[in-house]
Amino acid sequence: MNLKFLLIAALILGIAGTTASYGAGEKVTIRAGHFPNITHAQGVIGQARGDFDKAYGDKATVDWKIFTAGPSAIEAMFAGELDIAYIGPNPAINGYIKSQGEALRVVSGAASGGASLVVRKDAGIKSDKDFNGKKIATPAIGGTQDVALRYWLLEHDYKLKEKGGPVQVLPLANPDQLTLFIKKELDGAWTVEPWVSRLILEGDGEILFQEKDLWPNGQYVTTHIIVSKKFLDKHPDLVKTWLETNIDITNWINENPEEAKVVINEEIKRETGKALPQAVLDAGFPRIEFTYDPIASSLYKVAQDAFDIGFLGRKKPDLTNIYDLTILNEVLKEKGLGEITVSAPKAAAN
Predict the structure, then answer these.
(1) CA separation, residue 98 to residues 71, 90, 244 (Å)
(2) Average pLDDT, the chain
(3) Per the CB 3.0–4.6 Å rule, which of 10, 77, 84, 190 could disulfide with 149?
(4) What is the mean pLDDT of residues 242-246?
């Protein structure tokens, strides 16, 4: 059996397996996911303070699931084990494409920014001309930062080592990147907070540039909210309450950044067993913009970049229906905020 068939079969089985949990009149259990990361701040804070449970009252309860990688969250959604998640753009794109548009919808934004290309101070990298013979890491192959780095290298006429070129891209877990920085066995890394700040403060690194410098108005999607299509169709009212609460948390973070850092760090410590150093939190937090705007244009650009470097097959993906902002715009209208519109690019064969 081919991979596409297996993925669709798993999705159908997952949907069938979850139907019993959505009985009329019953208190619904919402399986929600986030990473223990400051770029997933609304999810982290919402779990720590119980914001979503309070908003649902007797209608629903939230069963939080903690993920450390986007692909595992998408697999959980395929299996019918996850209803709502804070996640990066590339895993969402991959999940949408692999399920032929049946698995998920992007319903809101959460965060922009936070990613940078960090280089060791003594690596001899001062500009985009200095990457010959260098080893540059990303958190995971095919992930958001991995695609960004590979496309940036392509734009600057660098060939990768596996294709006979002078630059080696190494997909490495963030803790391993820091270890190799300290050992001087890695020249740079395209990664996201809090690891950008950790590489600077603990690994003697410096920012060559922030990714926001490459985007119009300095905005691009780092984290957004996805919902399984089955859950969205069955429980639009619960999704609405989630988005209302997410907007409230977003506004609270932006109005109370110092308090937000405390709540986030305490929850990260509870989830991982270790809090972030205060210096890391203080340095990284201002590099992230918390927003309910999904910044859709940047996702389409990311998808095009992934296609151009050969990560999305031979046919340009059709992402026409990946967004469903109907409920978000309903909430924004009720709150007296501006509506968000999305114009999907037309799909075409390569």
Answers:
(1) 12, 12, 30
(2) 91
(3) 190
(4) 98
* 0.85 exceeded by pTM: yes
Task: Spell out a b/e string for 181-190, using b for 16 or more CB atoms within 10 Å of the CB, else e.
Answer: beeeebbbbb
- Report residue 57 CA to chain centroid gap: 28
Sheet holding 28-34, edge to edge: 60-66, 28-34, 84-87, 221-228, 104-113, 288-290
Arch. (CATH architecture) of 3-113+220-334: 3-Layer(aba) Sandwich (3.40)
The full set of domain ranges for the chain reads: 3-113+220-334, 115-218
Question: What pLDDT does residue 346 have?
Answer: 62
Is the N-terminal amide bond of 71 cis, ω within 30° of 0?
A: no
Whether 348 shows a pLDDT value over 50: the answer reads: no
* % of the chain with per-residue pLDDT over 90: 83
> By three-state DSSP, how is residue 65 classified?
strand
**How far is residue 288's CA from residue 77's CA, in Å, rounded to a whole number?**
27
Which numeric CATH code is attached to 115-218?
Answer: 3.40.190.10
What is the pLDDT at residue 311?
Answer: 85
